[in-house]
Amino acid sequence: MPVQTELSRMIESICREKGVGRDVVIEAVEQAILSAARRNYPSARLEAKYNPEIGKVELFRVLTVVERVKDPNIEISLEEARSKDPEVQLGDEILEKLPEVSSRVGAYVARQNLLQKIRDTERALVYDEFKKLKGELTHLGTVQKLDRRNIIVNLGRTEAVLPEKEQIPRERYRPGDRIRAYILDVEMSQSQGPRVVLSRTHPGFLIKLFEHEVPEIFQGIVQVKAAAREPGVRAKIAVTSKDPDVDPIGACVGPRGTRVQAVVQELRGEKIDIVLWSEDAAEFVCRALAPAKVSRIIIDDEERKMEVIVPDDQLSLAIGRKGQNVRLASKLTGFDLTVKSESEVAKEQQDARLALMQIEGMDEALADELYESGVRTVEDLANADLDTLLEAENLTPEKARELQERARDWIAQHPAEQQSSEADLSSAMTSDAGEEEFSEEGPSASVEAAEETRGS
Q1: Are 128 and 121 in contact (CB under 8 A)?
Q2: Phi-psi region for residue 107, left (φ > 0), alpha (ψ -120 to 50) or beta?
Q3: In the CATH scheme, what is the homologous superfamily, with its name and number, of domain 6-126?
Q4: In this model, does residue 455 exceed pLDDT 50?
Q5: Which of 124-133, 300-309, 412-421 has the lowest mean pLDDT?
């Protein structure tokens, strides 16, 4: 029957208090004893083994059997070894039991090493637990304190940080408040242990909230294909259904809107547009821009860009307040969207037609076809690759090369006129300004320019 000693009781106590496995604690004790014993036996090969029958750690020195001993700390003569074990041979290794580590220094080192080992083990367990939860929702945590503008959240086994940039604008918390968030990242620091980073602005937070509220999403019947957010203001989420009998939008809305309202409440009133996803990129973009109606779309698959043309009275609706609708639609679909009104496009097309008609052999129909292919100035024509030009139905390779040669000749003869023509067309085309704005604020046409046009 195992003997209950102070050491065995300490091992059991640590297992209960720290939630660490018995084998892990025993290994830590053995390593601590070895560390303390090496002070007395610096050059010896030592082994420590916990004996549950006596409740103590037994310490051994490993000795190699040799004919002539040169270093008694690691070797033993054959004669002496056979006095302990008659069957031992040269080259064998035997274990010599050493006195227990009982000095005050040894006990202190053992205790410190054990505590450090336990801390490291606890940190590793917490890190492994939360690393698996990356991309998931936390259970309801408690706001512990405010560190500058970051929020420190108690998740039970560890603390997490909700950085200022991951907080919903105008959202305020006080110590003791309950909070739910998205596990954005889990990092391991040698000095401070695991660091869990939370977010309430990530699109994944929106997706996981719907998964929590909508059983059909949790069961995999309804799938969330994409999500885009402007935290605290508006969001779009694209859904589809594997079951033709299940309406994915209706499932997300829920009876009397209860499901979507629960998500809106968690996001502090953030408006949510639920969009039906489509494999057809153009159709998906049209749905993402709803409620605005789209007249037609010009797609550039290689550059992942789309030029969206809408009726004049739909331009404001398509762009949204400060470009919000088109920015979210772009994030949702993955396309750089440029929104233009029909009158804007008609003027651009007329300007491009007049520019291209200056080239001998160009007619209106061909100029319009080239416009649809992205060729809108004489310089575009001169520098376009042959495949782009041949998108025009009635243009042969020979004719295309001939037009390009004439375009180059025209540029050489009219450099001042070409620069003036390009400047006029550039000012008429809002897409260039829109692309600049996209890099800063979002993928829209030049929203400010469009608003000025409407205002005037």
Answers
A1: no
A2: alpha
A3: NusA, N-terminal domain (3.30.1480.10)
A4: no
A5: 412-421
